[in-house]
Amino acid sequence: MMRTMILKVTEKCNSHCAYCDVVANRAQAEHMPLNVLEIVFSRINEFLQTHPEERIGVTFHGGEPLLVGTAFYKAAYEFQQKYCRDTRDRMNYSIQSNLTLFSEDYVEIFRDLGIEQVGTSYDPEPHIRGPGTPNDSDLYNRMFMQGDMTAQKHGFKSGIIYVVTKKSLKSPLKVFHYLANLRPGGFFNMHPVILYHNRREDLAITPAEYVDFLGVIFPVWWKHQQRYPHMEPFCSMVKIIKDGYLSLSCASSGACDYHHVNVDPLGETSQCGRSSDWGLLPYGNIRGRSLEEIFSDSKRDELHVRNEVLRHGECRDCRFWTICHGDCPLDSYPKYSNFLHRSEWGCTRKVFIEQYFEPMTGLRFTPS
After folding, report:
1. More confident residue, 248 or 178
2. How many angstroms separate the CA atoms of 332 and 343, rounded?
3. Is 85 within 8 Å of 44 (Cβ atoms)?
4. Which of 189, 251, 338, 343 is spaced 20 to 30 Å from 311 by Cα?
5. Is the dihedral of CA 179, 180, 184, 185 positive or negative?
6. What are 161's strand-pairing partners?
7. What is the pLDDT of residues 108-121, one digit of tens each?
8. Rounded CA gap, 50 and 11, in Å?
Protein backbone atom coordinates (compact mmCIF):
# COMPACT_ATOMS: atom_id res chain seq x y z
CA MET A 1 0.00 0.00 0.00
CA MET A 2 1.22 3.48 -0.82
CA ARG A 3 0.65 6.31 1.64
CA THR A 4 1.02 9.92 0.49
CA MET A 5 2.70 12.68 2.48
CA ILE A 6 2.54 16.29 1.29
CA LEU A 7 5.47 18.04 2.97
CA LYS A 8 4.61 21.73 2.85
CA VAL A 9 8.07 23.10 3.58
CA THR A 10 7.00 26.74 3.26
CA GLU A 11 3.84 28.76 2.67
CA LYS A 12 5.77 31.64 1.16
CA CYS A 13 5.76 32.01 -2.62
CA ASN A 14 7.33 34.26 -5.23
CA SER A 15 4.53 33.88 -7.75
CA HIS A 16 1.34 35.04 -6.00
CA CYS A 17 -1.08 33.24 -8.32
CA ALA A 18 -4.38 35.08 -8.46
CA TYR A 19 -6.42 32.00 -7.49
CA CYS A 20 -4.09 30.57 -4.81
CA ASP A 21 -5.67 29.56 -1.49
CA VAL A 22 -2.36 29.65 0.36
CA VAL A 23 -1.95 33.34 -0.42
CA ALA A 24 -5.61 34.07 0.29
CA ASN A 25 -6.20 32.05 3.46
CA ARG A 26 -2.93 31.54 5.32
CA ALA A 27 -0.64 33.77 7.34
CA GLN A 28 2.36 32.38 5.44
CA ALA A 29 4.49 30.92 8.21
CA GLU A 30 8.24 30.86 7.93
CA HIS A 31 10.07 27.97 6.30
CA MET A 32 9.96 24.59 8.03
CA PRO A 33 12.62 24.46 10.77
CA LEU A 34 15.17 21.69 10.40
CA ASN A 35 14.17 20.18 13.73
CA VAL A 36 10.66 19.63 12.35
CA LEU A 37 12.09 18.16 9.14
CA GLU A 38 14.19 15.77 11.25
CA ILE A 39 11.12 14.63 13.19
CA VAL A 40 9.32 13.98 9.90
CA PHE A 41 12.01 11.54 8.76
CA SER A 42 12.09 9.88 12.15
CA ARG A 43 8.30 9.41 12.03
CA ILE A 44 8.43 8.02 8.48
CA ASN A 45 11.01 5.43 9.45
CA GLU A 46 9.07 4.51 12.59
CA PHE A 47 5.93 3.91 10.51
CA LEU A 48 7.66 1.91 7.78
CA GLN A 49 9.50 -0.24 10.32
CA THR A 50 6.17 -1.10 11.91
CA HIS A 51 4.47 -1.72 8.55
CA PRO A 52 6.88 -3.63 6.27
CA GLU A 53 4.21 -3.93 3.57
CA GLU A 54 3.75 -0.16 3.26
CA ARG A 55 5.37 2.53 1.11
CA ILE A 56 5.30 6.34 1.49
CA GLY A 57 5.44 8.86 -1.32
CA VAL A 58 6.77 12.23 -0.14
CA THR A 59 6.02 15.35 -2.19
CA PHE A 60 7.88 18.52 -1.26
CA HIS A 61 5.32 21.30 -1.64
CA GLY A 62 4.49 24.88 -0.74
CA GLY A 63 4.09 27.79 -1.28
CA GLU A 64 7.15 27.57 -3.48
CA PRO A 65 9.38 24.79 -2.06
CA LEU A 66 12.56 26.03 -3.76
CA LEU A 67 12.47 29.16 -1.60
CA VAL A 68 13.93 27.11 1.27
CA GLY A 69 17.19 26.73 -0.67
CA THR A 70 19.50 23.82 -1.39
CA ALA A 71 20.74 23.56 2.22
CA PHE A 72 17.26 22.41 3.27
CA TYR A 73 17.28 19.51 0.80
CA LYS A 74 20.83 18.57 1.78
CA ALA A 75 19.58 18.37 5.35
CA ALA A 76 16.66 16.21 4.16
CA TYR A 77 19.15 13.82 2.57
CA GLU A 78 21.21 13.70 5.76
CA PHE A 79 18.09 12.93 7.84
CA GLN A 80 17.11 10.25 5.37
CA GLN A 81 20.55 8.67 5.72
CA LYS A 82 20.38 8.96 9.52
CA TYR A 83 16.89 7.56 10.07
CA CYS A 84 15.78 5.68 6.96
CA ARG A 85 18.72 3.55 5.84
CA ASP A 86 16.66 0.36 6.18
CA THR A 87 13.42 1.81 4.80
CA ARG A 88 14.69 4.14 2.05
CA ASP A 89 13.74 1.69 -0.71
CA ARG A 90 10.09 2.09 0.32
CA MET A 91 10.12 5.88 -0.03
CA ASN A 92 9.46 7.81 -3.24
CA TYR A 93 10.14 11.53 -3.65
CA SER A 94 8.74 14.22 -5.91
CA ILE A 95 8.42 18.00 -5.76
CA GLN A 96 5.78 20.48 -6.92
CA SER A 97 7.43 23.76 -7.93
CA ASN A 98 6.70 26.74 -10.15
CA LEU A 99 10.28 26.20 -11.47
CA THR A 100 11.11 29.91 -11.45
CA LEU A 101 13.98 29.27 -9.01
CA PHE A 102 15.18 25.95 -10.38
CA SER A 103 18.89 26.07 -11.23
CA GLU A 104 21.95 23.90 -11.61
CA ASP A 105 22.41 24.13 -7.83
CA TYR A 106 19.46 21.78 -7.23
CA VAL A 107 20.43 19.05 -9.69
CA GLU A 108 22.87 17.03 -7.59
CA ILE A 109 20.96 17.11 -4.32
CA PHE A 110 17.68 16.21 -6.05
CA ARG A 111 19.39 13.22 -7.63
CA ASP A 112 20.85 12.21 -4.26
CA LEU A 113 17.34 12.27 -2.78
CA GLY A 114 15.94 10.32 -5.72
CA ILE A 115 13.76 13.12 -7.07
CA GLU A 116 13.24 12.37 -10.75
CA GLN A 117 10.02 14.28 -11.30
CA VAL A 118 9.42 18.01 -10.84
CA GLY A 119 5.71 18.69 -11.14
CA THR A 120 4.85 22.23 -12.11
CA SER A 121 2.03 24.48 -13.22
CA TYR A 122 1.92 27.26 -15.75
CA ASP A 123 -0.44 30.03 -16.83
CA PRO A 124 0.61 32.07 -19.88
CA GLU A 125 -2.28 34.55 -19.55
CA PRO A 126 -1.28 38.02 -18.33
CA HIS A 127 -1.63 38.96 -14.65
CA ILE A 128 -2.46 35.47 -13.36
CA ARG A 129 1.02 34.71 -11.99
CA GLY A 130 4.07 36.66 -10.98
CA PRO A 131 5.33 38.90 -8.18
CA GLY A 132 3.84 42.29 -7.47
CA THR A 133 0.41 43.88 -7.89
CA PRO A 134 -0.58 43.57 -10.65
CA ASN A 135 1.30 40.35 -11.25
CA ASP A 136 4.51 40.81 -13.22
CA SER A 137 3.73 38.13 -15.81
CA ASP A 138 6.71 38.93 -18.01
CA LEU A 139 9.20 38.34 -15.21
CA TYR A 140 7.38 35.15 -14.18
CA ASN A 141 7.43 33.84 -17.77
CA ARG A 142 11.16 34.48 -18.19
CA MET A 143 12.00 32.80 -14.88
CA PHE A 144 9.73 29.84 -15.58
CA MET A 145 11.21 29.22 -19.03
CA GLN A 146 14.76 29.36 -17.67
CA GLY A 147 13.99 26.95 -14.85
CA ASP A 148 12.04 24.65 -17.14
CA MET A 149 14.88 24.46 -19.66
CA THR A 150 17.34 23.65 -16.86
CA ALA A 151 15.12 20.87 -15.53
CA GLN A 152 14.67 19.34 -18.97
CA LYS A 153 18.38 19.66 -19.75
CA HIS A 154 19.16 17.45 -16.76
CA GLY A 155 16.48 14.89 -17.53
CA PHE A 156 13.91 15.74 -14.87
CA LYS A 157 10.41 14.73 -15.89
CA SER A 158 8.18 17.76 -15.65
CA GLY A 159 4.47 17.71 -16.39
CA ILE A 160 2.41 20.91 -16.34
CA ILE A 161 -0.88 21.60 -14.60
CA TYR A 162 -2.78 24.32 -16.45
CA VAL A 163 -5.59 25.95 -14.47
CA VAL A 164 -8.66 26.70 -16.57
CA THR A 165 -10.08 30.12 -15.65
CA LYS A 166 -12.63 32.44 -17.23
CA LYS A 167 -9.80 33.90 -19.31
CA SER A 168 -9.16 30.44 -20.77
CA LEU A 169 -12.73 30.10 -22.06
CA LYS A 170 -12.14 32.68 -24.80
CA SER A 171 -9.77 30.46 -26.81
CA PRO A 172 -9.62 26.78 -25.80
CA LEU A 173 -7.72 25.67 -28.90
CA LYS A 174 -5.15 28.44 -28.51
CA VAL A 175 -4.51 27.20 -24.97
CA PHE A 176 -4.23 23.62 -26.18
CA HIS A 177 -1.74 24.38 -28.95
CA TYR A 178 0.34 26.60 -26.67
CA LEU A 179 0.66 23.84 -24.07
CA ALA A 180 1.24 21.18 -26.72
CA ASN A 181 4.16 23.19 -28.10
CA LEU A 182 5.53 23.64 -24.60
CA ARG A 183 5.13 19.93 -23.78
CA PRO A 184 5.46 17.77 -26.91
CA GLY A 185 3.76 14.49 -26.23
CA GLY A 186 1.09 16.19 -24.14
CA PHE A 187 2.59 16.07 -20.67
CA PHE A 188 0.03 18.51 -19.28
CA ASN A 189 -3.25 18.44 -17.40
CA MET A 190 -6.06 20.99 -17.75
CA HIS A 191 -7.73 21.40 -14.38
CA PRO A 192 -10.59 23.76 -13.47
CA VAL A 193 -9.93 26.67 -11.15
CA ILE A 194 -11.55 26.09 -7.74
CA LEU A 195 -12.55 29.31 -5.99
CA TYR A 196 -14.74 29.81 -2.94
CA HIS A 197 -16.23 32.68 -0.93
CA ASN A 198 -16.91 34.71 -4.10
CA ARG A 199 -13.20 35.24 -4.70
CA ARG A 200 -12.10 36.50 -8.10
CA GLU A 201 -15.34 36.36 -10.05
CA ASP A 202 -13.31 37.49 -13.05
CA LEU A 203 -11.57 34.08 -12.96
CA ALA A 204 -14.24 31.70 -11.65
CA ILE A 205 -15.90 29.19 -13.97
CA THR A 206 -18.78 26.75 -13.62
CA PRO A 207 -18.56 22.97 -14.06
CA ALA A 208 -20.57 23.30 -17.28
CA GLU A 209 -18.10 25.85 -18.67
CA TYR A 210 -15.20 23.53 -17.87
CA VAL A 211 -16.92 20.64 -19.66
CA ASP A 212 -17.55 22.79 -22.75
CA PHE A 213 -13.94 24.03 -22.69
CA LEU A 214 -12.77 20.42 -22.87
CA GLY A 215 -15.41 19.69 -25.48
CA VAL A 216 -13.89 22.19 -27.91
CA ILE A 217 -10.43 20.65 -27.54
CA PHE A 218 -11.39 16.97 -27.50
CA PRO A 219 -12.05 16.48 -31.26
CA VAL A 220 -8.59 17.88 -32.07
CA TRP A 221 -6.93 15.75 -29.41
CA TRP A 222 -8.81 12.61 -30.45
CA LYS A 223 -7.70 13.01 -34.05
CA HIS A 224 -4.05 13.48 -33.00
CA GLN A 225 -3.98 11.48 -29.77
CA GLN A 226 -0.89 9.50 -30.77
CA ARG A 227 0.98 12.80 -30.91
CA TYR A 228 -0.23 13.78 -27.42
CA PRO A 229 -0.58 10.44 -25.58
CA HIS A 230 -0.06 11.88 -22.09
CA MET A 231 -2.51 14.77 -22.08
CA GLU A 232 -4.98 14.86 -19.21
CA PRO A 233 -7.80 14.47 -18.55
CA PHE A 234 -8.30 12.78 -21.93
CA CYS A 235 -5.69 10.03 -21.83
CA SER A 236 -7.01 8.71 -18.50
CA MET A 237 -10.50 8.56 -19.92
CA VAL A 238 -9.28 6.50 -22.86
CA LYS A 239 -7.48 4.13 -20.50
CA ILE A 240 -10.65 3.76 -18.45
CA ILE A 241 -13.23 3.46 -21.22
CA LYS A 242 -11.29 1.75 -24.00
CA ASP A 243 -8.70 -0.26 -22.08
CA GLY A 244 -10.55 -0.89 -18.82
CA TYR A 245 -7.67 0.50 -16.75
CA LEU A 246 -8.69 2.65 -13.78
CA SER A 247 -6.47 5.72 -13.73
CA LEU A 248 -7.90 7.93 -10.98
CA SER A 249 -6.64 11.03 -9.21
CA CYS A 250 -6.97 11.37 -5.44
CA ALA A 251 -10.09 13.52 -5.99
CA SER A 252 -11.97 10.83 -7.94
CA SER A 253 -10.55 7.69 -6.32
CA GLY A 254 -12.77 7.68 -3.23
CA ALA A 255 -9.76 6.30 -1.36
CA CYS A 256 -7.96 9.20 0.32
CA ASP A 257 -9.50 8.51 3.74
CA TYR A 258 -6.68 6.84 5.68
CA HIS A 259 -3.86 7.23 3.18
CA HIS A 260 -2.98 10.94 2.88
CA VAL A 261 -1.38 13.43 5.22
CA ASN A 262 -0.16 17.00 4.89
CA VAL A 263 2.57 18.39 7.15
CA ASP A 264 2.77 22.18 7.27
CA PRO A 265 5.91 24.25 8.07
CA LEU A 266 5.22 24.16 11.81
CA GLY A 267 4.57 20.41 11.86
CA GLU A 268 0.77 20.63 12.02
CA THR A 269 -0.86 17.80 10.09
CA SER A 270 -4.10 17.57 8.15
CA GLN A 271 -5.63 15.53 5.37
CA CYS A 272 -3.98 17.26 2.40
CA GLY A 273 -2.63 20.57 1.18
CA ARG A 274 -6.08 21.98 0.51
CA SER A 275 -7.46 20.99 3.92
CA SER A 276 -4.44 22.69 5.47
CA ASP A 277 -5.12 25.87 3.49
CA TRP A 278 -8.73 25.94 4.72
CA GLY A 279 -8.12 24.83 8.32
CA LEU A 280 -10.03 21.55 7.91
CA LEU A 281 -9.36 18.03 9.22
CA PRO A 282 -6.49 18.81 11.61
CA TYR A 283 -4.76 15.73 13.01
CA GLY A 284 -2.32 17.29 15.48
CA ASN A 285 1.37 18.14 15.34
CA ILE A 286 3.87 15.58 14.13
CA ARG A 287 6.11 16.57 17.03
CA GLY A 288 3.67 14.91 19.41
CA ARG A 289 1.89 12.28 17.31
CA SER A 290 3.17 9.29 15.38
CA LEU A 291 2.14 8.66 11.78
CA GLU A 292 0.29 5.61 13.08
CA GLU A 293 -1.87 7.89 15.21
CA ILE A 294 -2.25 10.47 12.46
CA PHE A 295 -3.28 7.97 9.78
CA SER A 296 -5.87 6.41 12.12
CA ASP A 297 -7.33 9.66 13.49
CA SER A 298 -11.09 9.32 14.03
CA LYS A 299 -11.81 12.50 12.04
CA ARG A 300 -10.95 10.47 8.95
CA ASP A 301 -13.95 8.21 9.53
CA GLU A 302 -16.32 10.68 7.87
CA LEU A 303 -14.26 10.43 4.68
CA HIS A 304 -14.37 6.65 4.93
CA VAL A 305 -18.18 6.39 5.23
CA ARG A 306 -18.72 8.97 2.47
CA ASN A 307 -18.58 6.32 -0.26
CA GLU A 308 -21.36 4.32 1.39
CA VAL A 309 -23.50 7.43 1.95
CA LEU A 310 -23.16 8.64 -1.64
CA ARG A 311 -23.53 5.21 -3.21
CA HIS A 312 -26.92 4.83 -1.56
CA GLY A 313 -27.91 8.49 -1.88
CA GLU A 314 -26.97 11.21 -4.35
CA CYS A 315 -24.93 8.88 -6.58
CA ARG A 316 -27.29 5.91 -6.48
CA ASP A 317 -27.51 4.04 -9.82
CA CYS A 318 -24.95 6.32 -11.52
CA ARG A 319 -22.95 4.26 -14.01
CA PHE A 320 -19.96 6.56 -13.51
CA TRP A 321 -19.59 5.89 -9.79
CA THR A 322 -16.43 3.80 -10.11
CA ILE A 323 -14.56 6.63 -11.88
CA CYS A 324 -15.94 9.57 -9.90
CA HIS A 325 -16.93 8.72 -6.28
CA GLY A 326 -18.55 12.13 -5.94
CA ASP A 327 -15.20 13.84 -6.58
CA CYS A 328 -13.12 15.53 -3.88
CA PRO A 329 -14.90 15.54 -0.49
CA LEU A 330 -13.35 18.91 0.36
CA ASP A 331 -15.26 20.52 -2.50
CA SER A 332 -18.57 19.64 -0.85
CA TYR A 333 -17.63 21.33 2.42
CA PRO A 334 -18.19 25.04 1.55
CA LYS A 335 -21.84 24.36 0.69
CA TYR A 336 -22.79 21.69 3.23
CA SER A 337 -20.25 22.12 6.08
CA ASN A 338 -19.55 18.39 5.93
CA PHE A 339 -17.96 15.92 3.52
CA LEU A 340 -20.91 13.61 2.95
CA HIS A 341 -22.24 15.17 -0.24
CA ARG A 342 -21.26 15.05 -3.87
CA SER A 343 -19.05 17.90 -4.98
CA GLU A 344 -20.50 20.37 -7.49
CA TRP A 345 -17.60 19.23 -9.70
CA GLY A 346 -18.48 15.58 -9.14
CA CYS A 347 -20.41 15.14 -12.37
CA THR A 348 -18.06 16.91 -14.79
CA ARG A 349 -16.50 13.62 -15.92
CA LYS A 350 -19.95 12.06 -16.38
CA VAL A 351 -21.28 15.03 -18.38
CA PHE A 352 -18.16 15.26 -20.54
CA ILE A 353 -18.24 11.56 -21.40
CA GLU A 354 -21.96 11.60 -22.22
CA GLN A 355 -21.93 14.85 -24.21
CA TYR A 356 -18.58 14.64 -25.99
CA PHE A 357 -16.57 11.44 -25.51
CA GLU A 358 -19.15 8.76 -26.26
CA PRO A 359 -20.83 10.48 -29.25
CA MET A 360 -17.51 11.22 -30.95
CA THR A 361 -15.64 7.98 -30.28
CA GLY A 362 -18.47 5.48 -30.46
CA LEU A 363 -17.12 4.00 -27.22
CA ARG A 364 -19.37 3.58 -24.23
CA PHE A 365 -18.32 3.50 -20.63
CA THR A 366 -19.52 0.33 -18.92
CA PRO A 367 -18.62 -0.06 -15.25
CA SER A 368 -16.73 -3.25 -14.44
Report:
1. 178
2. 5
3. no
4. 189
5. positive
6. 121, 189
7. 999 999 999 899 99
8. 31
